[in-house]
Amino acid sequence: MRLRLVRDDTSIDFFSKARIWLGISMVAMVVAFASFLIQGLNYGIDFQGGTSIRTDSAIVVDVAQYRSVLEALDLGDISIAEVDDPLFDEDQHVALVRVQAQEGDERIASETIEAIQTALRTIDPGMTFPSVESVGPKVSGELIQTAIIAVALAVVAILLYIWMRFEWQFAVGAVVALAHDVILTIGIFSELQIKFDLAIIAALLTIVGYSINDTVIVFDRVRENLRKYKKKDLKEVLNLSINETLSRTLMTSVTTMLALLALFILGGDVIRGFVFAMMWGVLIGTYSSIFVASTILLVLGVKRDWSKKDPSAGTKYGHIET
Amino acid sequence: MLNISFSKLVMIWLTVIVGLAFALPNGFYGRVETHNDAMAIIDAGQTNAELEADAAQWPSFLPSNLVNLGLDLRGGAHLLVEVQVEDVHASFLEGFWPSVRDALAAERDTVGFVTREDSPATELRVRISEPEGATQAFQIARGLGSPVASFTGAASTNIDVEIDGTLLTITLSEAEMVAMNERTIMQTLEIIRRRIDEVGTREPTIQRQGSERILVQVPGVGSANEIIELLGTTAQLTFNPVLGRAADADASPGTGNILVPALDEPNVFYILERRPVVTGEDLENAQLDFDQNGRPAVAFRFNTSAAREFGDYTLENIGSPFAIVLDNQVISAPTIQSHIPGGSGIITGNFDVEEATNLAVLLRAGALPAELTFLEERTIGPELGADSIAAGQIACIVAAIAILVYMVLSYGLFGVFANIALIINVGLIFGLLSIVGATLTLPGIAGIVLTIGMAVDANVIVFERIREELKTAKGPARAIELGYERALSSIIDANITTFMTAVILFTIGSGPVSGFAVTLGFGIVTSVFTAIFVTRSLIVIWFSRTRPKTIEV
After folding, report:
1. Where in the sequence is the domain holding B250, given as residue range(s)?
2. CATH code, domain with B536
3. N or C, fewer C-beta in 10 Å, chain B?
4. Do B288 and B156 share a structural domain?
């Protein structure tokens, strides 16, 4: 007896409620975007500049106390977050202290870092600082720029590849699905105010890769079925293709999720935000390749006759009027 | 029919075996590291029983390449510095002024008086008093330029000269700036390398990034501060004749002289001759020493020619003071008591032992051509790195077990085949990482875990396809064959797109992010290889042995 996530012969109609799904996605995207505009992202020092110090003490973290000793230093905006992790020892109390980039110059003053450490040691003389990271405003500005370029480049490269391998309608469908995933991921980071740093950009690009992976598998089957069932209308073909690949889509999502879940629980707090982004990405990536990408394809329509020579062959846009 | 040629089979499994052999050393990380360290010393020509014993910890016929651990896993300091090339431009122009002045002064009859005017550091402005001499002055100034060897081959001089009425403006030419920046960066790289080597840490990474930046990564350093102290001073040492003292910074030192503040005395300035007697470049050695009162000092020795010059100078100037100047501050200004013939001496100041040791290191390594600005610094403690590795390992094992069980539950025997391929896949990723000497970072571990999750995907695509084909195809062999054939295009399309994002991440990202991209990219390559070839050959071998009438996937 085999474990089956879905029966072999599903025939779910994914488009009967297409409007609802699209509606939900639109609303979610608007909410995500609004949250991004209003609340903004909780940028890490990679993008904002500043200094981040991880503290490790045998005494329970008292955020108010940390804040009071640091405010005496007059360093501007300070954020202190207690970190909790099941892997910590019993008498291990970790916090992340973040100090804004200091006015004036690019140089990160070692004296400032030392002053912070000395101030914190008044709370617990045995406190250690497992990591100290400091990024100047110049570099952080550039990092934002490269991050945006990276994501944009990835999307464009995928658009071109799908266009080359399929038809432009597929490429548009895939890219809309990608934009959907990226916006929703940024949205949840803004909504939950999870730290957004360079690693999250890597996660975003992985989500882009994962989601496109899913979408391509469905599209590949759509293309095959379009050739096979010349008489069926597009909606039927899309439904059939999604149903046929559903088992694989869910199977891969589950195995990837299992791996990420292990990392989320056991991988330590340093990469938890990164793993969270990917888990979220797998979830919405799976959703978007089933509902968003295919729906766009249905709306745009596709050239059907693959066997006959396209009368307007040679131009990618020859079939636009169909 | 369902078949793979024998030669193909051999190729597939040979690849697997070689890949796994290269991954093997990582299973014995500490042991292989000891072996490699010992071998490096033995290859350098030294040997003793202890080294031999260390080297014997790992057989030499096996591969011994290891995956490098990134700073976030090993602990250490990471610094991004920018070289202030503008300083070099400014000091070049500064040094150019005397020759302009002298050349124009020689033609005083036509150009009149020559004065220097205030200007930004990027240019040199010279005013002449006779408007009729403007063309002549222009010619003279231009004649002072020297040719620059530029890679475009176009002949150009190192300066651009413009004349506007009686005002000469001299700037560095584009070609000279490029050449000068290049020289400065190369020299800075070399000096940084020497300074860090002086303190003797393991395997530092010193890399140029972009046009004016240098990335310095030193594993095993407790704090980036140690490195900053090492790189924060340019350590330009000169010995200049002292002409007098002044009490404020605005005092005019006179032509050919400079006003330099004292290091330890506030509001004391020395008037020095600009041209030094000897400089730090002529030092042969410098080390920690103590003066007659037992205070820390730095003992130095000049090379032969500088020793002679220094000797002559001290002989001629007994009784007058000279200044030891470090980075535009007078450390001390002793009076010459007697002739110093041997070219050695000590520098005293208010040093503690650590400061004196550091100064000696800096003097030995040489001066930086320009100041460095620190743009980014990250220090990761070794414990945090070790915790991350441990957590990553546990997560990897748990993820792998969960997926292995899940695959067997879903696909039975075929799941077992996929699992064997999955284990080989992880081995191959490590093999590839070791072969290219890639660096494993914490996001890199996440990349591997993610790959474990996604690696089964290609197998899942095939198995699902075989299931479908079983409903229609004639016999299991045909179904398996069709399954592979028809799934191929999906697998390729899906993985090429992911691979593209990995490439983009690698090119654009830095540090941990590119570490993630590397494992992700390699993971894609190995997972496609294992799914298409390894799993398939397992299935073929199994099928041709048992010849089942029906199969269940």
Report:
1. 238-350
2. 1.20.1640.10
3. N
4. no
CATH number, position B272: 3.30.1360.200
> Pick from B122, B141, B175: which residue ends a domain?
B175
Which of B213, B216, B513 is the best residue to mutate to test the A interface, defined by the most A CB atoms within 10 Å of its own CB? B513
Q: Which domains does chain A show, CATH number per domain?
A: 18-42+140-300 (1.20.1640.10), 50-135 (3.30.70.3220)
Distance in angstroms (rounded) separating the CA atoms of residues B410 and B510: 39
Domain count for chain B: 3
Sign of CA dihedral A113, A118, A122, A124: positive
pLDDT per residue over B384-405, tens digit each?
Answer: 888 888 888 888 899 889 999 9
Answer whether residue A110 shows pLDDT above 80.
no
Instruction: Please answer yes or no on whether B505 and A158 come within 8 Å at the CB atom.
Output: no
Q: What is the pLDDT of residues A145-190, one digit of tens each?
A: 888 888 888 888 888 988 988 888 999 999 999 999 999 999 999 9
Which of B411, B446, B502 faces A274 most closely, judged by CB atoms?
B446
| B334 and B395, same domain (yes or no) | no
Q: Do A165 and B454 touch (CB under 8 A)?
A: no
Q: Which residues of A89-108 are buried (b: 16+ CB within 10 A; e: fewer)?
A: eeeebbbbbbbbbbeeeebb
Cβ contact (<8 Å) for B498 and A132?
A: no
- Tell me the residue ranges of DSSP E strands in chain A: 42-43, 50-57, 78-83, 93-99, 128-135, 195-196
Residue type at A232 in one-letter notation: K
**Confidence (pLDDT) at A186:** 93
Check pLDDT > 70 for residue A279. Answer: yes
Does a structural domain hold residue B101?
yes
Best probe of the B interface among A248, A264, A275, by most B CBs < 10 A, is A248
Interface contact A270-B384, CB threshold 8 A: yes
The pLDDT of residue A311 is above 60: no
| B152 in a structural domain | yes
For residue B215, is it within any domain?
no
Q: Could you tell me the sign of the dihedral formed by the alpha carbons of A12, A16, A18, A20, in that order?
A: negative
pLDDT for the residue B152: 59
**Nearest Cα residue to B520 out of B411, B445, B423:** B445
Q: Give the type of residue at B521.
A: G
Per-residue pLDDT, A107: 60
Return the pLDDT at A319: 47
Q: Is the domain of B496 the same as that of B540? A: yes
Check pLDDT > 70 for residue B174: yes
Return the pLDDT at A315: 46
To the nearest whole Å, the CA of A244 is away from the closest chain B CA by 8
Burial B210-234 (b: 16+ CB within 10 A, else e): eebbbbbbbbebebbbbbbbbbbbb
Q: Which residues pair with B347 in a beta bridge?
A: B298
Based on the domain organization, do B415 and B507 belong to the same domain?
A: yes
Same domain, B342 and B389: no
Q: Does residue B42 form part of some domain?
A: no
Return the minimum-mean-pLDDT range out of A144-158, B42-56, B150-164: B150-164
Residues B143 and B290 in one domain: no
Q: Domain boundary residue among B299, B332, B350?
A: B350
| B430-452 pLDDT tens trace | 999 999 888 888 888 888 877 88
Please check whether residue B274 is in contact with residue B256, taking contact to mean a CB–CB distance below 8 angstroms. Answer: yes
**Which CATH number do you get for residue B155?**
3.30.1360
The pLDDT, as a whole number, for residue A317 is 47
- Residues B342 and B436 both lie in one domain: no
pTM of the full predicted structure?
A: 0.78
Cβ–Cβ of A258/B449 closer than 8 Å?
A: no
Q: Which of A3, A202, A267 sits opposite B505 (nearest CB)?
A: A202
The C-alpha of A95 sits at a distance from chain B's nearest C-alpha, in angstroms, of 13
Tell me how close the Cα of B363 comes to any Cα of chain A, in angstroms: 23
Task: Using the CB atoms, write b or e for A235-260: b if 16+ within 10 Å.
Answer: eebbbbbbbbbbbbbbbbbbbbbbbb
User: Which of A114, A150, A213 faces B505 most closely, judged by CB atoms?
Assistant: A150
pLDDT band at B205 (very low <50, low <70, confident <90, very high): confident
Nearest to B443 among A130, A138, A271 (CB): A271
Tell whether B267 and B170 lie within a shared domain: no
